[in-house]
């Protein structure tokens, strides 16, 4: 009886270990192949709440106001400002679709949706490359910022791997190699995050006139940062040198 029970426990243990190895190895492999940087659209500030008169509106009152808005809106003709705002919104959608489709090394859901492709095809922009977009314009002009492309979950996987090894399990080479690089990953992530946050903060603090005067320097800085989007992955040995290169150009 005890022998049969121990056999069941052993089989369960091996099954759970294989499941962990499969998931961890897949995650680690994908994570280390990522470029060290990604780009994200800046979050648009939330519109300020309308100033009230110090009175709370009931649910019935809110419903009445909504009905009034709908009725008023149906009788109002389209104003020139509405047409302009619609064109601006369309341009923003086009620019966002264009950037999402052309950012090197980035993977987004629904990037090549029919609506995005038709929007770009309509203006003959489907063959535009990333370099075409960034050669004369700054990232902030596209409402984009640089961010470290890293998933902290890898440190949990490394800790689990260390515990598995202490329990006597043999680890796959890919997981063992990454576990040995724990310190390197931690310090390089910390250094990269620090320099990119400083760069973003400095750039966003500039006034339009200061941005115009410093545009050549900012474009040169972005050219130094760009390899983090295209070539430098977390397996690279030169991440430290790459970070130093960016740091030299900070103002």
TrEMBL record:
Pfam families: DHC_N1. GO terms for cellular component: axonemal dynein complex. Residues 145-242 form the Dynein heavy chain tail domain. GO terms for biological process: microtubule-based movement. It comes from the Eukaryota. One of its GO terms (molecular function) is dynein light intermediate chain binding. Transmembrane segments: none annotated. PANTHER family: AAA+ ATPASE DOMAIN-CONTAINING PROTEIN (PTHR46532:SF4), MALE FERTILITY FACTOR KL5 (PTHR46532). Belongs to the dynein heavy chain family. This is Dynein heavy chain tail domain-containing protein.
